[in-house]
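Predict the 3D structure for this chain.
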Amino acid sequence: MYKNIITLLDLEKSDFENLFSRAIELKKKHKEGILETPLAGKTLGLIFDKHSTRTRISFETAMVQLGGTSIFISAKDTQIARDEPVRDTARVLSRYLNALAIRTYSQELLKEFASFSTIPVINALTDLYHPCQVLSDLMTVIEYKGGYEDLKIVWVGDGNNVSHSWINAAAVLGLNLVLACPEGFNPDPEIMQKALGRGNGKIVVTSDLFEAVKDADVIYTDVWASMGQEGEYNSRKIVFKPFQVNSGLVKQAPRDVIIMHCLPAHRGEEISEEVLEGPLSVVWDQSENKLHMHKAILETLISNSFVKK
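Done. Predicted structure below.
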């Protein structure tokens, strides 16, 4: 059975579909005031090396709404900060917790946790991937567009960790994904090669932004400098300035395009105030959907109900 979500390549298409269906159902029940507590008595651990607003709070609230409990653990306060081996911490926490969500820099550290844990391990963001973000993003696309098939999804900006998870999703689901990035800031070529090797969907990288957004159903952007890249901020501002999602760019796309941003947003940089707060923006629903998708993820992983390969 599946146990972890380290990258979206860990999932089959049917797993995506089950998570979308359950998250949408849980959201509907939440709006209707119907309470389900399948994780009563269960505990989620959250080990975070990086700052977080939406990911931390949505995971914690998800556990509460499902009847469980969460424990936030700042990595600097653990014995890992005093050189306890990851394998030792992973095996001990597996005796205390029912699942573990980790937000850290190194993908390798996350993989080591997963190798030695006997509970589900969830990637809550690394420098390479942000899988749960893209799961909730796709849920939002389904809500607004009725599905994800035959859509053109355009990523605008840096080839960062969120873009890498979009690439993985495209490889599994067969998405039409265009990544419009400044030259020198493309996604990781190894991640691209692995995704393209699946021969599923259409994944294209271009520096021609205005051509990219023609016929777009979704335009998605993110900050120009991710956590850990603060030292590059000033130089990146110059390179990325032509890649701002503003009203001029949006006018090149169809009138029913939706605008997405995983937040936090730097208004006037990667996205204009007018577009972020405009009628085509779905960012607030997108942010809310992290809560409901995290509920679906936690319920599925902790109950071990992913289907066998």
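Residues 283-302 form the longest helix (20 residues).
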